Task: structure prediction
Amino acid sequence: MSGRRAPTRAPKPKRPSRARPAAAEAPAVAVKQRGARGRSPRAPGARRANIWAALRRVPVAAWVCALVACLNAVCWSIIMPPFQVPDEQDHFAYVQELAESGHIPIPQREAVYSPEETFALQDLEYYNLRRYPQSHAISSIKQQQRLQSDLSKPLPRRGNGGAGVATSQPPLYYALQTIPYAFESGGTILARLQLMRLLSTVLAGLTALFVFLFVREALPGAPWAWTVGGLGVALAPLPAFISGGVNPDALLYAISAASFYCLARGFHRGLTPRLGAAIGALIILGLLTKLNFIGLTPGIVLGAIVLTIRQARVSRRIALRSFALAVGVPAVPVFLYVAFKTLSGNPTVSLASSAINSTLHGPDKMRELGYIWQLYLPRLPGMANDFIGLFPSRQIWFNGLVGLYGWFDTSFPSWVYGAAILPASIIAALVIRALVVCRAALRRRLAELVVYLSITFGLMLLIGAASYVYFSTKNSGGSPEARYLMPLLALWGAVLALAARGAGRRWEPAAGVLIVVLFLAHDIFSQLLVISRYYG
Amino acid sequence: MRPPIVLAAGLALVALAMGATMFGKPRRLLDNNAISNSGFLGYAEGSTVGCQENETLPRGTSAVTLFLEAVFGPKVTVTAQRAGRTIARGAVGTGWTGGSVTIPIAPTPRTTSRVKVCFSLGPGNEEVSELGNLTPANLALIGGEGKRLRGRMRIEYLADGEKSWWSLALQVARRMGLGHALTGTWVAFLLALLMLATASLTSWLVLRETR
Result:
């Protein structure tokens, strides 16, 4: 990889150098150093100092990427009318139920929101606005006065205990959101919602930070490309749109990016007990955030296994201890949680289990596999056509990434999606070129690549299986959305970084700048599109 | 090429494109068929057609909005016929999503009444919902196989815009300050400031890292 001077500030004396040994050869040395350091200071003061030292080692560029992502998501949080981010009304109801009653929502045939939320939805014309792009947000002083008058009343804050589609989700994100909810408990529902949205925007910043750090570990020889990857994700409109609302995806993206970072760090510097504990903690946090994390878990566990095997060549004891922390520790509470929920008949695991069950034990496995195949790839001869007239790769995934906002009702004119193929193709060509040029390094890092691909595959399989459950009951194309792939943002950052590198040493800086400007433009025009749709 | 020049050129291009986009004129609602969107009429599945009689196509109509709902909608072709003669036609490709679909047509030169608006869907395997309101059977939408549905579908007729986004900017800014926790026209300026800060930070970082 390139040995070009690192523009992200030269390391100061006495700080660990940012120059690292090559990924495949490094672990043994690195682990011994880290193992020794990890055991030393136990005093709280020393630990705090260690944390500060670790934070100070994070490059300024990473913090700026995080700030850009945060600001970008704040813009989206201001632009999007309340409850127009997908399922936001259900996520809010979940937080409200948790904050007001101290209990997680219970399954109901139909969620009845609290009178406070019901009035807000009515006065905001939520039902006229949602899915009807020709409708606009409230636009008269009279409507605003009615809204303010209703919201100033002391309306009850409890519904029937249900939270619609959010009911089946684990509680971590919602528990976090009870903090801003409680902070603004004396204010109107809209003030609470905005504060909750701001918490999500902080998570968007964390996501960009971890993506930057992941790219730094994955492509250690390309410092400028780290910034391209970090900014590319920070400015991407789809994750900013989701993180500008109340949606557990915001935390899922951050945890997924952190998981990728920990794995890359393990591959680059070796597995330590501390890293193992971090991976284990992330698995627990991910599973407590959103069920979709189940799709990522097998790949992360595979990564921990590969890292353990590599580490065992140096120290079997450290390897086993690290593995126990990475996989064994999260396995116990997860097992207990699943057992408890299954025995108590709660649907928290039922959605995922029905998707997994239908894949493993469904009456027509081949049909389902065919469906999942077609969801991402061109149909093969002999497969039933589950997407007649549609090419999902293009219409669901590509167009979804280019721009489909609100309740999937806000899209660019169709020519934009056609035009977007050109820059996407150029980026793809640059990535392919970078991979060809770095093929020797790729071969050395095959195990690492397989782990990342298995995480991707696991998530795609889960999305496909869950979508098939919908498809088989409704006989429609299913309900997959491009945002479901956003837990792979870290890989997306690496792809952008590779694209910059693919331009060659001479053109790499210019290509990187162009990629960043492209994403900035994409973000600005997406915001203008949404503004024109709701307020035009 | 030097990165600062690329950045400056890129940002200038984005600003120009934004300015040009703001000269665009959004479509405006000319009229509708006075049917509210308050009910589900039926499903259309596969390749199917539907027709609604006694519509009035206003002069200057350049797009028709049909209240059809789909997750990934099939191709939709719309025709407007008067006494068996097609007076307008348009189509939109697959993949539309939402509770309505807008189909551009060539602008109509005059207002025409007693028009039969027909649409054909497909090919596709998704159930598409037809939305409107319940009416007497003789007024209802005629679905596939010539069967009358439970009511009439809402249809809206749109014309090319007269005002550019530039001239609507203040109105848009005012509307952005309604229905949120933060109220007032200043919200639009706050947003512009935040976006400017985002772009400035991005530019600063790019220049710093490529130095």
